[in-house]
Design brief:
CATH topology: Serine Threonine Protein Phosphatase 5, Tetratricopeptide repeat
CATH architecture: Alpha Horseshoe
Radius of gyration: 12 Å
Distance between the termini: 23 Å
Strand content: under 5%
Order of helices and strands: HHHHH
Number of domains: 1
């Protein structure tokens, strides 16, 4: 998915990562990739919304929060 963004196909990366998140909603790496894909496609707001959705899922279902790597991606989106 990251490769799709690098070769100028962020919309395809969004589509692929969205499917991956749907298949395993607890796999944080998929959310990270989707956040990057949204950002690369110019949809930073959706990337931020996705972060909040992930944080809610992790808190409600697993009693934890996003990893340091996910937090770093989120912080980068806010800059």
């Amino acid at each position: 998915m990251a490769t799709l963004c690098r070769i100028g196909e962020p919309s395809l990366a969004v589509e692929t990562a969205t499917q991956t998140v749907a298949l395993d909603p607890f796999r944080e790496r998929s959310y990270q990739l989707l956040m990057h894909a949204y950002d690369a496609s110019g949809n930073k707001a959706e990337a931020v919304r996705l972060y909040h959705r992930l944080a809610e899922i992790l808190a409600a279902e697993l009693g934890t929060g996003p990893s340091a790597k996910t937090e770093a991606i989120y912080s980068g989106l806010l800059r």
